[in-house]
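Supplementary Note 2. Why include the ligand at all?

Several targets in our set were suspected to adopt different conformations when bound, so apo predictions alone were not considered sufficient. For every target with a known small-molecule partner we therefore ran a joint prediction. The input for Phenylacetyl coenzyme A is given below.
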Amino acid sequence: MICIFDLEKSFQEKIDKEIKIEPKDWMPEAYRKTNLRQISQHAHSEIVGMLPEGNWISRAPSLKRKAILIAKVQDEAGHGLYLYSAAETLGTSRDQMVEDLNSGKAKYSSIFNYPTLTWADMGAVGWLVDGAAILNQVMLCRTSYGPYARAMVRICKEESFHQRQGFESLLVLSKGTKAQRDMCQDAINRWWWPSLMMFGPKDNESTNSDQSIKWKIKRKTNDELRQQFVDMVAEQVKLLGMTLPDPNLKWNEERNHYDFGEINWEEFWNVVKGNGPCNKQRLVDRNKAHDEGTWVREAALAYAEKRKNKLKTKAT
Ligand code: FAQ
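The joint prediction is reproduced in token form.
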């Protein structure tokens, strides 16, 4: 008889050999749960992430910028759908996940609880927020759970375009009038620290990291990815002729990395616990969008049912 110990051993061997875990494979309950937690939080982030950007569709400064923003927001919806589908393979339903999000029970990324005050915020979100997201997601293309890894490959292709369009949009502002340059700098000042928080708590306070690294769900720690992000952005910001709002940001020859200042962790946990500047508003808007979409879901279901019946009649 195979005992749980043998199952766990062969499971870990598979992971160590870089063999992907698929939905029908045996997996420890904690592996299933932590993947479900992370993938569903990730899906919710994509969906809530549409809200601060959606705010600016009607106010984009040109037809070209409007078209780009609409396409970007639509992409985020698609990312949410791939991720909900991946999460469903772990034994929960999309309805349940959506209910958890709308009731405020489920977490999503802290970053989407900050307001988008000016047009430059759309550039800053693309450059910094998508930039942070993509560093994390490139790593997740090699995550051990097959459906999550495959979803990430598709998402990364679109996300890298998002980041470049954000940078390009800021580049235009950075070459504009004084008012445009000030708006650009102000957006960078407001989005910099929250972007660093996207990578999660410091490694010594990250409750899930050790196990997730053993299971190769995560391939790099929160602090490793955060450092990678700082090193990348500290160089890119020079091309904009702008600065990052951190007096302690300095190249460290010995470490071969940028040193940077301390994150306000009290602010981070406050936002995670639901007390950020926009947490309440985001939930109200999400619920409103869900309610207003009821007729679309009903129509799609009725259409699917009609098609099924038609095919059945044809077959008989
Ligand atoms: N916000 O033990 P760890 C995007 C929670 S997608 C809120 O280190 P873990 C696209 C964490 O859940 C952005 N909560 O956790 C886009 C845990 O709580 P729990 C989202 C956070 O999972 C762009 C607790 O703290 N990306 O932006 C945050 O090992 C533009 C302890 O933390 C993903 O979700 C946070 N920032 O590492 C869309 C990527 N950080 O659940 C629109 C996938 C931590 O135990 C526009 N996720 N917490 O109660 C991950 O890689 C990981 O989940 C981490 C956190 C790295 C986020």
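The pocket of Phenylacetyl coenzyme A is lined by residues 37-38, 41-42, 45-46, 49, 76, 107, 109-110, 125, 129-130, 133, 136, 197-201, 206-209, 212, 218, 222, 272 (CB under 6 Å). DSSP finds twelve helices and two strands in the chain. Comparable summaries for the other entries are listed in the accompanying table.
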